[in-house]
Amino acid sequence: MKVFVSSLISGFESFREAVKSAITTLRHEPIMAEDLGAQPDSPQVACLKGLRSADLVILVLGQSYGFPQGSSGVSPTHEEYREARDTKPILVFVQHGVVREPEQSKFVSEVQAWQSGHFRDAFETPEQLKDLVTRAIHDYQLTHAAGPLDVGALVQTAVELLPRSHQGNHSGPPMLNVAFVGGPFQRVLRPAQLEEPALARALHQQALFGEQGVFNSTKGMDSGIDGAALVLSQDRGSRIQLDEHGSLLIRLPLERPEVRGRSGFGGGLAIIEETVMSQLIAAIAYADWLLEKIDPTERLTQVAVAASIDAADFLGWRTQAEDDASPGSGQMRMGRDEDLAPIRIDRRRAALRYEARALAEDLMVPLRRQRRIRNG
Counting beta carbons within 10 angstroms of the beta carbon of residue 168, is it exposed (0 to 12), middle (13 to 18) or buried (19 or more)? Predict the structure, then answer.
């Protein structure tokens, strides 16, 4: 395994040597800026190339921030962290007992806000740091012993979780489907755990009263095991489906209760953009909560997300402002929806919590492009 070491270099040599010793003791390959030698690229580009080739990143934060780079405006270590944050697993170690420079304090706060804490630890001496890094890499390997991360397979599994589309003869309100599949793909719940009534109660409670509730609190709920999955459902199509691998399907109506039964374009012949966005945010928040509950030690570090909309072929797409401006009129969408492939993306698991709105937008915008009215 290739392990990239990211930290300030000047004045931090003994700590970097301790990290290197831990890596080599475990028979892994350290990638360190001081070992890269003469390169045709700038040191900045060479380090980022080394980071991109690594399987794991060790980030060590001490007292000093370093000098901001002209191209990025942040220090080399800060730039390396931002490069790795969405694409690499990062083990973070923060030096205690020092007075940090203001910019370094901000950097530490940024990292601590992103990291969930499972692999973050504190040290004071090089000897402590070596021991901590050795244990952390060992624990990381045990945690990920399920196998290598196959992002393509995760994405395909998420797509396969989505219900088969029946837009052409769809009845009832339009429905948003969002599937989440964590990786490396492995079992995180035993069959007996999936059947525990306490788990269904917890999922139901969060669905009704969580910060972003996905169920209607005025309606009843049915739950049970369907095949190898725990399913919670309400009328009008709302559904939560969880299996032993932690894979999750959330199905939510895009109907607005205040216009139910109203005639005209705004009364049911349009998908409202803000409704899609709010339901996507709710689904992402629920998925984040659920993964934290069933996998608190973060065996699942990556997540693939797939989204689709089930709706009658003629339904167009409108913003709330467009609908408010002319609620009784509008163009119906022409053409059929068989060609509307699910939207699919993959992210680090932490994105569910810290970049939920951006993640929702990354799903909503392609859905909007698909369903914008086509004439003729």
Answer: exposed
Give the highest mean pLDDT range of 41-50, 172-181, 243-252. Answer: 243-252
226 strand-pairing partners: 229
Q: Extract the tokens encoding 144.
A: 């990920």
The pLDDT tens digits of the residues spanning 223-232 come to 999 999 999 9
DSSP symbols for 142-191: HHTTT----HHHHHHHHHHHSPPP-GGG--SS-EEEEEEEEES----S-H
CA 21 to chain centre: 33
Q: Peptide bond preceding 184: is omega within 30 degrees of 0, i.e. cis? A: yes
Contact 367, 310 (CB under 8 A): no
How does DSSP assign 88-103, residue by residue?
Answer: S-EEEEEE-SS---HH
- Largest Cα span, the chain: 73
Q: How far apart are CA 59 and CA 291, in angstroms?
A: 25
What pTM, to 2 d.p., does this model score? Answer: 0.68
Half-sphere CA count of 28, side-chain side, radius 13 A: 25
CA distance linking residue 93 with residue 234, whole number of Å:
45
Burial of 264 (0-12, 13-18, 19+ CB in 10 A): middle
Contact yes or no for 138/1 (Cβ under 8 A): no
